[in-house]
Design goal:
The complex is a heterodimer of chains A (about 625) and B (about 325). By secondary structure, chain A is an alpha+beta fold. Chain A has 16 helices and 27 strands. Chain A has two domains: about 5-280 and about 590-619, Dipeptide-binding Protein, domain 1 (Alpha-Beta Complex), CATH 3.90.76.10; about 340-585, Dipeptide-binding Protein, domain 3 (Roll), CATH 3.10.105.10. Helix content of chain A is about 25%, strand content about 15%. In chain A, the strands form ten sheets. In chain A, strands 3-14-13-12 form a four-stranded mixed beta sheet, with no helix packed on it. In chain A, a hairpin with a 5-residue loop joins strand 12 and strand 13 (about 260-265). The longest helix of chain A is centred in the first third of the chain and has 18 residues, at about 135-150. The radius of gyration of chain A is 25 Å and the shape is globular. The two termini of chain A are about 45 Å apart. Chain B folds into two domains: about 1-90, no CATH class; about 90-310, MetI-like fold (Orthogonal Bundle). Helix content of chain B is about 80%, strand content about 0%. Chain B contains 14 helices and two strands; from the N terminus they run αααααββααααααααα. In chain B, strands 1-2 form a two-stranded antiparallel sheet. Classes of the chains: A alpha+beta (about 625), B mainly alpha (about 325). Chains A and B meet through strand 1, helix 6 and helix 13 of A and helix 2, helix 3, helix 4, helix 8 and helix 12 of B.
């Protein structure tokens, strides 16, 4: 369910308190994503104007149908494109908090009664005048039942919708379903129902005419096939009668396959905040440098102006300890780091067939390696002070109730080469600083480790991010202090994930690798509750390092079935110490730059959702 | 000449085929599972999905079977489908190739228009201050990487002086030809590097020719320096430039790749850049086919130009 930060693509999942629909008096402030720039004030609000927003390098929208397969699942497609037009049933994100947002959701908060879940629609409208109904929700669920195993990016065998039955639209406003056992209701809302995006009746068709996927699951495969083909006809998106039916605040009016997208307000939008801007434009860039050139030229009074761009990490000003950001090098803009609700790590492959599998399976070795990861130096150095610590399987930013009291205490393995050496020496290794440490006493080294075995590992890593390159060379240097030799192998992102992201035994990919670092770890979206069923369960396909523990599995099961934070704390405390991965700092998704005359864009949503309907210009 | 052309075209086809075979092997040698890279977590959560992807795109076949399948499609005009860009490769080429042709074409024209007279002038002013000055500039731009030249030009002419735009035109072909404000810096960046190369060759060729007997004869008959240079020396000095033009085409395309990236210009370089990062094999192969064809065509055109410019050259079997 959780989604890895492929290409800085996808998003997070979520935590924190659910905004109650009854907290109406504070709803606008607490539950809506409306906000204003924290560093700029004054000016008169004006209606209209075009805001230009910079897309991430080489990350452009290329799929419009909000039923996304793994091939097209990306932040660029989902959060930053589809969600502008097609709203998920439940919205997550309140300012920086990755929490349930009742005011932006299409239905009121789900009601749980035993194993029965009731969803009540608010009666918002599609742009063609039809109401967003329970049947539209059923349309999505039926689609999921029909083709989800192949074509829904967040499909997990055994979980939604396999874990519900008797899903039915009681009326146009009410839908009920029965869970196969009692679940933690927060988990069910945040990780299961969070995936649903209602689909309009106008889409329930094939090339030959109307169909009835909303009522008959058997009809859905052909409907999916038709909509998928329409989604692949990129040049027709802006004029398509299919994709012009929206329930979000924006409609697409122009699109080129290079990634230029222009939106105008959907006047029929039923949400609480209607767009003020006349147009919202997404602008593609080849590299961060190309974007920065345009940002600087616009800021200096040149032609094109980006209203919302970003600063390359290498150009980031050092952040003083006492300030949120350093001196912004771009005049007339507010610098605001966007840090996602995520954790960062890299896997060590305990199933490795290189001969190092038995070493990597040893907890003391993983502890030694973790003691050589200097998170503070990486945050203060290449990240210029903008990173956050990863202290375990639950993110430290933004602040949520999901992080255990132990997690709040900070890095559990602060940089300590002496401890690393001591751990190795006490387990039968002849530690040779700046040389190669070898096993001297196999009975202490561990099962399967022969006398003379050397601590030499290949470590492919993503070479497209400067800070990660610096972290890798720093780790290589630190590891040499304990005689651990890391052969760094810079590679493109997709190559690193193709090597190291899957659980090789489950996915059937090659196990001939020791470690791999794609730099992004894991972000929590669209399953915002940081439980570990997907990433940490034994035998899970995305349990990259193949970590196996029956105790861990039973602790995870408790987090899914108990309406309490205690099991989540117990599990994270346990798994933090077990080091199924090597924890590393969480870098900002981007260092956003917001023009001072653009308001409403800050603070940014840590779930990665984009809400330009909140934006407006001042003069 | 016709026999020569037939032989050269046959050779060109063989060269292009060899390039595709080598590229195909190299792409398949990249470590990691393509299906995993493309499908992401949903792929490896569901091994059946990986198998379906491999089956659909032929990754479950031996590489030579995959190659033959790709070649068969190519011969039917089908370059494949890019799963990352969600378009057919031919459609991508249709969008991006014309923009690169415009960029490369304009920069070559600009480079020739400047480099030829400059080389001629340098040779005529040999070992004088102006010669040394242009030689210095040539070395500077010849040595400077295109990303550096482009970045400096942006900082000076866009960020500081606001004369030109910081990125290339973002619209279609029409905007490339009409939006001079945005098109100038990418064209000049690419041209400056090519210009440095061409002017050096031009200077050298003119110096070779200027000491020839036919020049001495022309001067003896009372021809002015201008007439000697423009009427007699220029045409003969263009022969190495024509050859160079053909052979430099791959390097110019390579420079365009970087220049497009610096100027956010959505041409072939942009397409290649994304495809290389995302293991998008069909797009990479499509790009390489285009470059391979451009190289062999460039080389062929250089040979033909050589024959036209130099009457002594005749392509006949001895």
């Amino acid at each position: 369910m959780h989604v890895q930060q492929w290409h800085r693509h996808r998003r997070l999942r979520f935590a924190a308190a659910v905004c109650s629909a009854t907290a109406l008096t504070l709803a606008a402030a607490a539950c809506s994503s409306t906000s204003s720039n924290t560093s700029s004030s004054g000016g008169t609000r004006i209606s209209g104007g075009t805001a230009a927003w910079a897309e991430q390098p080489s990350a452009v929208p290329n799929y419009i149908f909000p039923f996304v397969s793994g091939t097209y699942a990306s932040t660029a497609n989902i959060s930053e494109f589809q969600y502008l037009m097609y709203r998920p049933l439940y919205w997550f994100g309140n300012g920086t908090s990755p929490t349930f947002n009742a005011s932006l959701s299409l239905a009121t908060a789900p009601v749980y009664n035993g194993t029965t879940v009731t969803i009540t629609m608010k009666g918002w409208k599609w742009s063609n005048g039809e109401t967003v109904t329970a049947q539209d929700v059923l349309f999505w669920i039926h689609m999921q039942q029909a083709v989800g195993a192949q074509d829904w990016f967040d499909f997990v065998p055994g979980l939604f919708p396999s874990n519900v039955s008797d899903v039915k639209a009681v009326s146009s406003t009410e839908l009920t379903m029965k869970m196969n056992k009692p679940y933690n209701t927060t988990w069910f809302t945040y990780n299961e129902l969070s995936q649903i995006t209602p689909l309009p009746t106008a889409w329930d068709r094939t090339a030959s005419g109307p169909s009835d996927c909303a009522a008959v699951v058997a009809d859905c495969a052909k409907v999916y096939s038709y909509l998928d083909s329409q989604s692949k006809a990129l040049s027709t998106w802006a004029s398509s009668p299919i994709w012009s039916v929206v329930d979000g605040p924006w409609k697409l009016t122009a699109y080129t396959s290079d990634g230029h997208a222009t939106f105008v307000p959907n006047r029929a939008y039923s949400g609480p905040v209607k767009p003020t801007l006349a147009k919202f434009e997404e602008v593609p860039f080849t590299t961060e440098s190309a974007e920065y050139n345009v940002l600087q030229a616009g800021a200096a009074g040149g032609g094109q102006k980006l209203d919302f761009g970003y600063l390359p990490t290498t150009d980031a000003p050092d952040k003083p300890a006492s300030a949120a950001v350093g001196q912004n090098p771009v005049g007339g803009y507010t610098l605001a780091p966007l840090i996602e609700w995520a954790i960062n790590y890299f896997p060590v492959n305990m199933q490795s067939t290189t001969g190092n599998g038995p070493v990597l399976s040893q907890l003391y070795f993983r502890q030694a390696l973790q003691y050589l990861m200097n998170q503070k130096a990486v945050i203060d150095g290449p990240l210029h002070g903008y990173g956050t610590y990863t202290v375990g399987p639950v993110g430290t930013y933004p602040a949520t109730s999901y992080l255990s009291p132990q997690g709040h205490q900070g890095d559990p393995y602060p940089f300590n080469p002496a401890k690393a050496k001591s751990l190795l020496a006490s387990h039968g290794w002849n530690v040779v600083p700046n040389g190669v440490t070898t096993c001297q006493n196999p009975s202490l080294c561990g099962p399967g480790i022969a006398k003379g075995h050397q601590l030499v590992f290949n470590l492919p890593y993503y070479d497209g991010t400067n800070w990660l390159g610096s972290e890798m060379t720093q780790l290589q240097s630190n590891a040499s202090l304990a005689g651990i030799k890391l052969n760094l192998q810079p590679k493109p992102f997709d190559q690193v994930t193709a090597i190291g992201a899957p659980n090789c035994k489950v996915a059937g990919t090659s196990c001939n690798w020791d470690m791999a670092d794609w730099g992004g770890g894991w972000s929590f979206s669209p399953d915002y509750y940081p439980s570990g069923e997907t990433l940490f369960t034994s035998g899970s396909a995305v349990n990259s390092g193949g970590y196996t523990s029956s105790q861990n599995d039973s602790l995870i099961t408790a987090t899914l079935t108990t309406n309490s934070l205690a099991p989540l704390y117990n599990w994270q405390n346990y798994v933090t110490a077990q080091l199924p991965y090597i924890w590393q700092p969480n870098a900002p998704f981007e260092l956003s730059e917001v023009a001072d005359n653009l308001r409403g864009a800050l603070p940014q949503n840590s779930t990665g959702q984009l809400n330009p309907e909140d934006w407006y210009f001042v003069k | 000449m016709i026999g020569f052309l037939v032989r050269r075209i046959a050779q060109a086809v063989v060269v292009v085929l060899l390039v595709t075979v080598i590229t195909f092997i190299l792409l398949r040698a990249i470590p990691g599972n393509v299906a995993v890279a493309i499908l992401g977590p949903s792929g490896f959560r569901n091994p059946a999905l990986l198998a379906a992807f491999n089956r659909e795109y032929g990754f479950d076949q031996p590489w030579f079977d995959q190659y033959l399948m790709w070649l068969g499609h190519l011969l039917h005009g089908n370059l494949g489908f890019s799963w990352t860009l969600d378009q057919s490769v031919s459609s991508e080429l249709g969008q991006h190739l014309p923009k690169t042709i415009v960029l490369v074409g304009l920069s070559i024209i600009l480079a020739l228009v400047v480099a030829v007279p400059v080389g001629l002038w340098q040779a005529a002013q040999r070992n004088r201050l102006v010669d040394y000055a242009f030689t210095g500039f040539s070395f500077l731009f010849y040595a400077a990487p295109s990303f550096f030249v482009g970045t400096v030009l942006i900082l000076v002419f866009s960020v500081k002086l606001h004369i030109f735009g910081p990125e290339g035109p973002q619209g279609g072909l029409v905007s490339d030809l009409t939006d001079w404000r945005d098109m100038t810096l990418p064209v000049v960046t690419l041209a400056l590097i090519t210009m440095a190369l061409f002017s050096r060759y031009m200077r050298s060729a003119v110096l070779d020719n200027i000491s020839q007997d036919y020049v001495r004869t022309a001067r003896a008959k009372g021809a002015s320096q201008r007439r000697v240079l423009w009427r007699h020396v220029l045409r003969n000095s263009l022969i190495p430039i024509a050859t160079l033009l053909g052979l430099a085409l791959p390097a110019i395309l390579g420079g365009a790749l970087i220049t497009e990236s610096v100027f956010n210009y959505p041409g072939m370089g942009y397409m290649f850049f994304k495809a290389a990062q995302q293991q998008d094999y069909p797009t990479l192969l499509g790009f390489i086919i285009v470059v391979a064809i451009a190289v062999v065509v460039g080389s062929l055109l250089a040979d033909i130009a050589y024959a036209i410019l130099d009457p002594r050259v005749r392509y006949i079997r001895s």
